[in-house]
Amino acid sequence: MCGRYAQALRPSQVRRQLQEENMIINEAPEDNSPDAPNTTHNFAPTNQGLVCRANSAHFVRQESSDDNGTAPELKTRQHYKLQTMKWGLIPSWTKHPPDYKFTMRTINCRSDSLAGSSGMWTSIKTHKRCIVIAQGFFEWLNRGTDKVPHYVKRKDGKLLCMAGLWDCTRYEAVGSPLPHSREELYTYTIVTTNSNPQLRFLHDRMPVILDPGSDALQMWLDLSKTVWEDDLQNILRPFNGKLEVYPVTREVGKVGKDSPMFVVPVNSWENKSNIANFFQVSSMKKEGSPTTTSKLSTEESSLKAAKTEPSQDPGPPMDSTKTANTVSHKRFAPNEPPRSPLPPSKKCKTSIQHSSSNQQTVSATQSSKLREKQTGLSKAGANKGHAKITSFFGKS
Q1: Where is the composition biased (Pro residues) (predicted)?
Q2: Which of 283, 292, 299, 350 has its CA at a distance of 20 to 30 angstroms from the CA of residue 329?
């Protein structure tokens, strides 16, 4: 099955590549015209795709030698046209546009269903064969409940020419001022066959892929082949060329989104969404950038210098006289060295030491005499108060 493919080339680019394969393209839509196809790396059903089909048979007169006496031969050479069509075949006998569910059932056509002489494909397969142009297609690998998208393309980089069928239906034009006017709607389907050994792990079906300019492709588009025979049926075989298949980002599963990264291997260097590449690039930038290295060296040198060099800012100036007076009124315990009233600081340590020579500290002897004097005054006050109380009670 083929339910999503990539086709981001403009009609002019496709035309040039097909002509390089010796295919004459008479007509093609303009790149920016209203009937130009959708160009996207995430092509979904109901999108407007680019299809190649036979245009007309041109007879080329080839003169033969007069010595033979034979009449000139007439040889035919097929000409082709590129046309925009909608993906999801709608048979010409339908009277009303079908719903989306019906269209999804006709995006693919099994090759074995064309072998019979009945079915909806009977009248289409004999007159309306085409090639669907793509760069590659997507298929999802089932791993239990998980589905991993894979991208498949030709290893030689050529266009992926998938065998298809087309049809044209006509509906009454809605809102047209002309009576009985009809609108033409061209649609197509992709023919699928059994997978080749290379893709069998991925899915049991794959599109029928034909080489551009090959005899098989020319036979498939030959307008003179109006009877379905074995030579046409035998074309619908698995591709025996070399394909390239690899997992891609899961974002491709979202219909309507488009990005060139959808066709890039998820583990490749070019895929910027790969988390491993992100960290690898980041580490290379850090290691290989001379600007970053020199900047880091400069910062490290600055940090080392800041640790080893003393601070050049001495802080606000201190009043040495005020400091000395404050310290002289503080009492210290015996044998205890005088302490600064300020907390220890590297910035003011020098100033405190400088002013310590002017301090007038109280000696231990002076402190002892002062305490004795205070004790004597306390006792005298207590005796004086006791005498007053005794005399008071004596008088009473």
Answers
A1: 335-344
A2: 350
